Amino acid sequence: xxxxxxxxxxxxxxxxxxxxxxxxxxxxxxxxxxxxxxxxxxxxxxxxxxxxxxxxxxxxxxxxxxxxxxxxxxxxxxxxxxxxxxxxxxxxxxxxxxxxxxxxxxxxxxxxxxxxxxxxxxxxxxxxxxxxxxxxxxxxxxxxxxxxxxxxxxxxxxxxxxxxxxxxxxxxxxxxxxxxxxxxxxxxxxxxxxxxxxxxxxxxxxxxxxxxxxxxxxxxxxxxxxxxxxxxxxxxxxxxxxxxxxxxxxxxxxxxxxxxxxxxxxxxxxxxxxxxxxxxxxxxxxxxxxxxxxxx
Length: 296
Prior knowledge:
By secondary structure, the chain is an alpha+beta fold. It folds into two domains: 2-180, Glutaredoxin; 190-295, Tetratricopeptide repeat domain (Serine Threonine Protein Phosphatase 5, Tetratricopeptide repeat). It has eleven helices and seven strands. The chain has a seven-stranded mixed sheet with strand order 1-2-3-5-4-6-7, covered by helices on one side. A hairpin with a 2-residue loop joins strand 6 and strand 7 (151-157). It is globular and about 60 Å long. The two termini are 33 Å apart.
């Protein structure tokens, strides 16, 4: 699966300053046969042939706010930023080059900007080979985490709420800021005992609270797969079950719940979930095949 190891110590022509950060990245093939980057590295690796076109297009097309950048410059001193991204991810392809352009114009030291490329395969979903994402709740990418020393000041998740410059300035000024995926943030910060099996009554009550914070069923679905890949099986099942209470008429949430139960070897619950898919979507061929295989 490993196609190549890319070791780059030199800077590209649009580097942050000074551009001396050594780079080690794995270039691997994902489940679709697509070459992607995985691991810790510098933005100079994005000048490689498989990534240069989209990086340059997004970078060159973005006109950053010079007045905002001027305000950011002194606030970024002695700060560091981790950027979790996927070279396979459309949001990362759009937002990361823009952010790097902003940081370049704000004269941020490249040594204080870390890029961590995550995988999109089923078994390593949103994970890097070195697992820098561990215990950092990386569920959507890109995720930009701003640090003052070792303390997280805030993060921008997937896309800015206002603009990258305004969101970053808000975080650096320690003003109130809520990134995207507020429902997941609520689950992580507010729900106690989420790593033990929760009752239907508890999940139903939580669904009532969380429904107004959700934009679509894919939010918790994606998070469930992140937890499943991280071997956090009980919390993953809780999340997938929660999603069925938030979206009880959506076949896709029961399909994902069935897949999760199948993954951990719980065939009876997997069958029940897939049968619910068929109750909502009688012509769902995948669910038909799954039920037949699991009963067979």
